[in-house]
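Q: Could you write out the predicted structure for this multi-component system? I'm mainly interested in how the pieces pack against one another.
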Amino acid sequence: MVVALKTLIGAHDLELVALATAGDRRAFGELVRRQGSAVRGLLRRMGADATLSDDIAQDAFLAAFEQIGDFRGEGTFAAWVKRIAARLYVKRWRRDQRTDIMAETPEPDMGDTSPNAAADKIDLDAALLTLSPVERLCVSLCYGAGWSHAEAAAALNTPLGTVKSHVKRGLDKLRARLAGKVDSDTREFPAHG
Amino acid sequence: MADRQFEIEIDRLFGEAVVLPDADRFAAIVAERLERGWRFRRLLIGGMGALGGVIGSAQLVSAGLLSHVGGILTGSNSAIRAGFSEARIASHLAEAVTAGAGLDTQVLWMSAAMAVVATILLMTRAIRDI
């Protein structure tokens, strides 16, 4: 089935998925163009460097093309590929960890969270850098890839309670950064009236 | 900020659309890898199909299946002729069938060729399914 490129660009993701399921590689290419950044971004948030995130994202999209018949359209295509990518990254992460990945890791440098520093624009990527690798991974898996705590625990081969602790600690740190930003925004743009 | 509200905010931040500057380059690399894999698969399927065809043909010849099938076809022709005679079918049909008996060799080779094609198709399908 040959579909004009213009049609592909204007098509909805689900239409592109249907075409890709029928073997249209150009339709799949359009999906990659649209969602590639989101998948790569998630992998970077999990802790992968640019090269590794690109490699894993490529593998994830290739795997997605092979398994596209399994995509039921229950969520978005991007979410589906993110889950595949997250699985691949966790596999890689576990393989690369020579020691127990859930071993206590030293607390990372939280950076300057004083009001002055918080006045700077805080984006999620910057805030995630204040988390330990394991916390960042757990938070990204649960909020970025849409995994449940139980799924993360199973994939990381660690107790559920440990994963929950990592997520909670990670969220607390993010909250501290985010709260600082909200405070600073309020100071910068006081309410009129 | 309440816990739930904060989680929603984190969800939103994670879900924000990000477009990296080299999105097109990334898509091109994936497309190239996809094409490369497809090309390799086509070559593999073609190669295995041809190999399967050769093996199938060799098996057909070595097993003496052709002469056996030839015998069956000859017998079938006789039976058909008898049947036609008994049924008093028009004589030109009977002649046509009789003439067909002389084409046994061609029929056999055509059957073999069809078997080879069928083998290739089956293997192609099987590999695609795998």
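A: Regarding packing and overall arrangement: The interface with chain A takes residues 1, 6-7, 9-11, 13-14, 16-20, 23-24, 26-27, 29-31, 33-35, 37-38 of chain B (CB under 8 Å).
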